[in-house]
Each structure stands twice: as C-alpha cells, then as structure tokens.
Amino acid sequence: MHNQSKFLLVYFAREPATWQEAFTDDQGNFAAAAPGLKIEFVVADPDPAKFAEQAKWADVIYVRGGKTVMLKDVLKNIPDFKGLIERKIYAGSSAGATVLAKHYYSTTDDVIREGLGILPIKVMPHYNESKQDKLEELKGTGQDLPIYTIREGEYKIIEK
Fold first, then answer.
1. Exposed e or buried b for every residue in 105-126, given b needs 16+ CB within 10 A?
2. Which H/E stretch holds residue 99?
3. Which residues contact 11 (CB under 8 A, 6 or more apart)?
4. 99 C-beta neighbours (distance < 10 Å), count
5. If both were cysteines, with which of 49, 83, 136, 149 could 127 make a disulfide (CB 3.0 to 4.6 Å apart)?
6. pLDDT tens, residue by residue, 7-51
7. What are the C-alpha distances in Å from 33 to residues 38, 68, 73, 115, 147?
8. pTM here?
9. What contacts 120, CB < 8 A, 6 or more positions away?
10. Where are the beta strands (DSSP E) in the chain?
11. C-alpha to C-alpha distance for 128 and 60, rounded to whole angstroms
C-alpha cells in the first residue's frame, strides 16, 4: 500500500505575506484528513522554471482560493501549465477550481470572467439561491458548457 505522498501547495491567489499561515493550516488539515499517510509538503514558487520542477515532483497539486485574477496572472506565465498538471491529482479551492474553467463567476468582483480554459466547463463557487441572476448570466456567457455550482462546504470531482 502506498502510504507516502508529495503535495505542492499553491498560494498564488493570495498575498505572499499570508502564505506561511496558509501553509501551516493546510499541513494540519491534510494530515488530519489522512492519518497514517506520510505527506511531504512544499510551497509552490511563482518562478515558472522552479514551479515546473516542483509540479513534476508532486503527486498532488493543491491550489488554495483567494483572488482568481491574481492566480491566473501567475499560472498563464508558466509554460505548459496544463501539461504539468496532467496525470496529477489537482485539487482547487474556490479560485483554485475556477481558474481551470473556460468561464467562472468571480465572487470577489461579482462579475463573470474568463479562466484558463483548461477544462471545458463553467464554475460558480460559493453558490446559493441569491446568486440566481449571476448563474443565468454565466449560462449565457460564451459557448454552452456544463456548469458546476459549488455551495459552501461542497466539492465536485471531475475525472479527465
């Protein structure tokens, strides 16, 4: 049985001053969720060459939420980001999930934005019924693609 894993923790959607606190929180959360699993954690480096090496090393790439625009600005400058995450477990929280979509609803700015388009989907994080008008706007944006509405505390698994 495989009882070791290498996690790359990505915080590009947040200000660097918050990364250490997020890293400490995530280490504790993942360790608690997988007792008995030996996990080696590394914080992702925004330098494209260093990130590429880290992504090749990792078994799991976890991208924490924050501002999707900030995250996208870093990821779009990483050559072959899509190739680096293929055949990996990619887990995204809020911005980490929306950035892969073709279009997404930005809770930060209350607008529909274009993601990296790695997955042919639309995503609405932090969904609740009060956002029905924004859901309709997302439906009408761009081509007709599956929409994933994700409520607080929910998750979706997409196997590709």
1. bbbbeeebbebbebbebbbbbe
2. none
3. 18, 19, 22, 23, 43, 44, 64, 66
4. 30
5. 149
6. 999 999 999 999 999 999 999 999 999 998 999 999 999 999 999
7. 12, 26, 31, 29, 28
8. 0.93
9. 102, 145, 146
10. 4-10, 38-43, 60-63, 89-92, 101-106, 111-114, 119-125, 147-150
11. 29
- The gap from C-alpha 78 to its chain's centroid, in whole angstroms, comes to 15
Residue type, 63: V
Tokens 């693609």 sit at which residue?
145
115-132 pLDDT, tens digit per residue, is 999 999 999 999 999 999
Give the span between the Cα atoms of 35 and 59, in whole angstroms. 17
Task: Give exposure, 37-48, as e/b (b: 16+ Cβ within 10 Å).
Answer: eebebebbeeee
Tens-digit pLDDT profile for residues 79-103: 999 999 999 999 999 999 999 999 9
Structure-derived torsion over alpha carbons of residues 77, 101, 123, 26, reported in degrees to the nearest 10: -50
Q: Are strands 38-43 and 4-10 parallel, antiparallel or unpaired?
A: parallel
